Amino acid sequence: MPKIRRIVLDVLKPHAPTIVDLSRKIATLDGVSGVNCTIEEVDQETESLRVTIEGDAIDFDEVSKAIRATGAVIHSVDSVSCGKKLVEEVMPSPQRP
């Protein structure tokens, strides 16, 4: 089965732990080589995050467990890249009149 190389998640978490702590927790998982957490929205009790994870063999179940262990939840899986190499999304060129 092809391995997950990149996954982008929409995550909702309480204010604590910080995105630094969450990123470090995910980065320690086997198969993960990098994590990017960006705060998209903040309200009184929670933060909405965009979490991008890259690696050679990301185990989604382990990522999910690590996120839940911090009190956060995955709202959606927004993008997944699998296979021998990462394929960047190509945006169509604007059409000219």
Largest sheet at a glance?
4 strands, antiparallel
Strand content: 35-45%
Which blocks of ≥5 consecutive residues have pLDDT under 50? none
CATH architecture type: 2-Layer Sandwich
Question: Taking Cα atoms only, what radius of gyration do you get, to the nearest Å?
Answer: 15 Å
Q: In CATH terms, what is the fold-level topology? A: Alpha-Beta Plaits
Give the total of beta strands: 4
Number of domains: 1
Shape: flat
- Count of discrete alpha- or pi-helical segments spanning 4 or more residues: 2
Residue-averaged pLDDT: 92
Helix and strand sequence = EHEEHE
CATH 4th-level superfamily: MTH889-like domain
Based on helices, strands and strand pairing, what is the structural class? alpha+beta
CATH class: Alpha Beta
Description:
The protein is of the alpha+beta class. It has one domain: Alpha-Beta Plaits, CATH 3.30.70. The protein contains two helices and four strands. It has helices at residues 19-27, 60-69, and strands at 4-14, 34-42, 46-58, 73-82. It has a four-stranded antiparallel sheet with strand order 2-3-1-4, covered by helices on one side. Strand 2 (34-42) and strand 3 (46-58) form a beta hairpin. The longest helix has 10 residues, at 60-69. It starts with a strand and ends in a 15-residue tail after the last strand.
